[in-house]
Amino acid sequence: MKHSIILFCFLIGLAGCAPTALYYWDNYPQTLYKTVENPGPESMASHQETLLRIIEQSAKWGRSVPPGVYYELGYISYQEGRLDEAATFFELEVETYPEAAVFVDSYRQMLTRSAGTTEEDPDGEEVESEKD
Fold this sequence. Notes:
Elements: H1 2-16, H2 28-37, H3 41-60, H4 69-79, H5 83-96, H6 101-115, E1 118-120, E2 126-128
Antiparallel strand pairs: 1-2
Helix pairs in contact: 2-3, 3-4, 4-5, 5-6
């Protein structure tokens, strides 16, 4: 009996030390699957709502936004022609995860070309971007 009580207390102590999840994912896997399986405005809107809810809940609970969430919202915004919003989400991804800069920079360049804005050449001079 004495051993059972000690074992029970030990297990309760271990349960209290269980790590909490690092990121909040909401129902991301389900909405992503639906978007890939049945592409369309409804599934994309549902997935976009999930991504925005992930950001909102992560902030509410003091957690970091999971890697790729800002990027994915930026890509969706880019596809829908909301270039300023896409740039903002790409920037947030790099601010949150600096290691993502290499990946995100290729999309920033694509965004710059699409917008027809100016960018700096390697010498630091501003040059007009070419539209594709």
